[in-house]
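Suppose a classmate hands you a notebook page containing two proteins, each written out with its sequence and a corresponding row of structure tokens. How would you begin to make sense of it? This section walks through that situation. The first entry is reproduced here exactly as it would appear on such a page.
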Amino acid sequence: MESEEKRKPNAREIAARVRGEIAAGTFGPGDRLPGGRAYAKKLGVSLMTVQNAYTQLREEGLLEGVSGSGTYVRDTAPGEQGPREAAQRMTDLQADVARLSTELRDEVAGLKFELAGLRERLSVLEGDQGSI
């Protein structure tokens, strides 16, 4: 029996997980997130990794830190987009970027194939002109 060590999530992946939980309504405005140390221990990562994830989400406007109290899902002002909607929008944007990236990669591959064919035809034409 082979023992495989489970890969530990990085800060970006942890932020995506928390963002998904906000989008799903697991955490709502004013809810306190798990403390950094406890969450790091649960995930098997360093405290710095969780802090970096929380920082990323604060920069996105989803979280706010309250000194000496913890990290909370940000409450919004009236008329402002809520954290759940913002998290869902960010998740949707990431999916769009991934889809567009795949489409672009496929398009570039097709163009490279067409360019190779054009070069081959040009080579043949240049060869035909040399024999005239």
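The notebook's second entry, a different protein, reads as follows.
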Amino acid sequence: MHTVKEAALITGLTEHAVRFYTDKGLVPSVQRNHNNTRMFDEESINWLHGVKCLKQSGMPVEAIKTYIDLCLKGESTLPQRSALMKEHKKTALAKLEEAKRHVAHLEEKTALYQAILEHRTPDTTNPGDWHRIRHMHAEVFYSPSV
């Protein structure tokens, strides 16, 4: 049997994470000793490794809990677990596309800053100065209220 500290060392998680995951019900085999201290056997360590793996994929704790509950019901839940993974993959791919849009925007911004630094274009990046350049970017600014 392992303590929280030992379980953390074995799994590479923090002690806080081990406690958090057990409190969330993500380690169904965790036991308590006579002092109500969490104790982890090899099965509990395996659950922690599994949680860590899912968390590293970006899966939210609520979805991990659903996955674990399905695992506890056995092989008959393989279709549901597969569907959960497919949905998680779909979400991750959407986040990846969003991140690609962010990077493209930042590439434009860094190119603009480089042009400003090389004095090839005026500085249009400071909102405090936009009153002087409003005419250059009229389509960006809202019309005054009537």
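A careful reader of the second entry would note: The chain has a mean pLDDT of 89.
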